[in-house]
Design goal:
The chain is mainly α. It contains 27 helices and no strands.
Length: 474
């Protein structure tokens, strides 16, 4: 039987820690019970595994008032809700259906919103449309007010437009691996950092720069550098500069991945759970990342339960990138839970159904999981057959020397060839050791190399032990 505070408790538990910090910065309560409850909300958002129940002796109307206040404050500052309103206003301006109340509110916003507002660029563009609307109707007073705003902020608007174009061009080269020199990479890094740390710019442009810095540092496996960006974001997200639930979920997911790469698993798990606290369009992507963290933490059953319960949502996604990522980690989750035959069956069925899409989007991620499932099931000839038929080792070697490179397919193929008697023990060890030595001096890659060797140890424990000794890896 639900008690009288269950509704409020469910609502409060859905809030993010940064939201509760922001709410505390906004409150001016005269009633002590309101602040007492809000402080407990703040504690509970940050300690989901040690929740303290809310005091039932406090009048229920106080809880109702506080819930209403929280919703009003967050909605008022939610940049995505403002964007939805702005798009509706633009539509009404463009089709000549804007009403006086909407015009009054739009005009009032020009007194409050400047170049640092998150959606300043879009706001400015809507005002440009609105000025044209006013001009043809000869509404001089409103026209003058809008023109004054547009003229006042013309320079920061044009600057933000140019910077966003620069962000697009740079990000395209980074994501597409087109940047070819250290000098070019350094220039992009400096551009992204300069934009993000410029507090005179609009929030949208700055957050785009933060996301591109994330991509940049992931591409180069420079996770320690990423930490300073997220430490700064952590402070900014306790204000209304970037506030929306979407942005917070994205921040938590990215931070979870960063801590996972740095092998800070407690923090990775904490932020991973926060990223999936509420469902949005990126929920499956965040869930996959969090499940990967749970696997690294040894919480195999938790990961399997989470992924299995989300398979219906997987079937509804149209993103092959997300679908292939989910399946790849689901295969690994089945393996971690000793469901060996099911892992191969699931992977094989998916491969036969989505072969074209796998090679188009995320072939290396998928085959890293698929071949591992075959390896655990000792299906060595199948691994060799797939590797040779689709030239997987050569495709993987195309990335040798790049920050993203790891010899996963090479190693899975090589141990299979040894197990099938196609190569000698000496050649097997030579391939593994020589390819590992070029990578073990990199902090992140040394961790991944150790993980890969552990994968091989299931099939050849004594040989892998001797290889680790030769490489001086514990």
């Amino acid at each position: 039987m639900r008690n009288k505070l269950d509704t409020f408790t469910d609502f409060a538990n859905s809030l993010y820690p940064h939201e509760s910090d922001f709410l505390l910065s906004q409150q001016q309560f005269s009633k002590s019970d309101n602040l007492t409850i809000l402080n407990l909300v703040n504690y509970n958002t940050k300690n989901p595994l040690n929740l303290i129940p809310y005091n039932q002796q406090i009048n229920k109307r106080t809880y109702s008032y506080l819930k209403t206040w929280i919703v009003e404050v967050l909605n008022k500052h939610d940049v995505d809700l403002f964007y939805d309103w702005l798009i509706s206003i633009e539509r009404n301006v463009m089709n000549d259906s804007i009403v006086p109340e909407e015009e009054k509110y739009l005009l009032d916003q020009t007194n409050h919103l400047g170049p640092t507002f998150y959606y300043f660029i879009r706001f400015y563009q809507v005002l440009q449309h609105y000025r044209d609307y006013l001009m043809v109707r000869n509404r001089i007073r409103y026209y003058s007010q809008i023109s004054a705003y547009l003229e006042k902020y013309k320079e920061p608007f044009e600057k933000s437009i140019l910077l966003n174009n620069d962000l697009n061009s740079a990000a395209e080269r980074v994501v597409s691996k087109l940047a070819s020199t250290d000098e070019e990479f350094n220039r992009f890094e400096e551009l992204f950092k300069t934009i993000y740390f410029d507090t005179n710019l609009d929030g949208y442009t700055r957050y785009r720069a933060a996301v591109r810095l994330t991509i940049f540092y992931y591409t180069n496996r420079e996770f320690d550098k990423l930490r300073s960006i997220y430490d700064n974001l952590d402070i900014a997200l306790k204000t209304n500069i970037f506030y929306s639930k979407r942005v917070l979920a994205n921040y938590y997911a990215n931070r979870a991945m960063m801590h996972s790469k740095l092998n800070e698993l407690d923090l990775a798990e904490k932020f991973g759970y926060l990223s999936i606290r509420q469902k949005n369009n990126d929920y499956l992507f965040y869930l996959v990342n969090h499940s990967a963290v749970l696997l690294k933490c040894g919480k195999h059953q938790d990961a399997l339960g989470l992924m299995t319960s989300s398979i219906p949502e997987l079937k509804n996604t149209s993103s092959y990138y997300c679908k292939i990522g989910f399946v790849s980690f689901y295969i690994r989750t089945l393996l971690a839970n000793n469901q060996l035959e099911k892992s191969v069956s699931y992977a094989t069925t998916f491969f036969e159904g989505y072969k074209k899409e796998i090679f188009e989007y995320r072939w290396h991620l998928f085959f890293s999981a698929y071949l591992l499932a075959l390896l655990r099931n000792e299906k060595y000839s199948r691994i060799i057959s797939l590797s040779r038929r689709y030239k997987l080792v050569n495709k993987e070697k195309e990335h040798a020397g790049k920050a993203i490179y790891l010899p996963v397919i090479l190693w899975y193929t090589t141990i299979s060839e040894y197990m099938e008697g196609e190569i000698s023990l000496e050649k097997f060890k030579d391939i593994i050791i020589s390819s590992a030595r070029t990578l073990i001096n990199h902090r992140y890659k040394s961790l991944k190399i150790n993980e890969l060797l552990s994968d091989l140890a299931f099939n050849a424990p004594d040989i892998i032990k001797s290889i680790k000794e030769e490489l001086n890896i514990n």
